């Protein structure tokens, strides 16, 4: 399943305007979502040359997790509701910056939950090269459609 356009993606995330950093959903399954992005869309973070610092990869990962939750909620007939990033572990940022026009893909894979906390393994790729990884923990409600039985 794919969400297609940026406007459709905007309906899945609580982000809007310049804080919506993802371009589109590439693929989605019950336990995994992959989104495409262009660093040029990250206006708020660009330097004078148009490059985006490597640490923004963490926000791209978090937005991919939010898109995953939004797609699950939509599939269940519910409106997407916001979650809250509560932790990031084993973050590896392998690039200092990303150039405008560089097409990247970010993946969020559901790895489990404990109560209202859900965990995701995330990876950012520039073509076949993995350029950032990490494990994110998010607080989610039942309305988000992620539970211990999901995935």
Query: What's the rounded overall pLDDT mean?
Result: 88
Helix content: 10-25%
Give the SSE string.
Answer: HEEEHEEEEE
Radius of gyration: 14 Å
- Count of individual beta strands: 8
Order of neighbouring strands in the sheet with most strands: 1-2-6-7-8-4
End-to-end CA span: 15 Å
Assign the structural class, choosing from mainly alpha, mainly beta, alpha/beta, alpha+beta, or little secondary structure.
alpha+beta
How much of the sequence lies in strands comes to: 35-45%
Shape: globular
Helices, by number, come to 2
Give the biggest sheet: 6 strands, antiparallel
Q: Ranges with pLDDT <50 over ≥5 residues? A: 147-151
Q: What can you see in these coordinates?
A:
The chain is α+β, with helices and mostly antiparallel strands. 16% of the residues lie in helices and 38% in strands. The protein contains two helices and eight strands. The strands form two sheets. Strands 1-2-6-7-8-4 form a six-stranded antiparallel sheet. A two-stranded antiparallel sheet has the order 3-5. A hairpin with a 2-residue loop joins β7 and β8. The chain starts with 5 loop residues before the first helix and ends in a 12-residue tail after the last strand. 32% of the residues are buried. The C terminus is likely disordered.
């Amino acid at each position: 399943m794919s969400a297609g356009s940026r406007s459709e993606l905007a309906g899945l995330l609580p982000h809007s305007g310049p804080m919506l950093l993802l371009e589109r959903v590439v693929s989605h399954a019950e336990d995994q979502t992959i989104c495409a992005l262009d660093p040029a869309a990250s206006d708020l973070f660009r330097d004078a040359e148009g490059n985006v610092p490597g640490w923004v990869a963490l926000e791209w990962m978090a937005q991919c997790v939010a898109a995953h939750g939004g797609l699950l909620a939509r599939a269940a007939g519910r409106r997407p509701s916001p979650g809250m990033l509560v932790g990031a572990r084993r973050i590896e940022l392998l690039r200092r910056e990303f150039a405008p026009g560089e097409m990247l893909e970010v993946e969020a894979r559901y790895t489990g939950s404990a109560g209202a906390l859900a965990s995701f393994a995330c990876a950012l790729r520039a073509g076949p090269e993995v350029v950032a990884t990490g494990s994110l923990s998010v607080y989610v409600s039942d309305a988000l459609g992620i539970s211990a039985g999901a995935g």
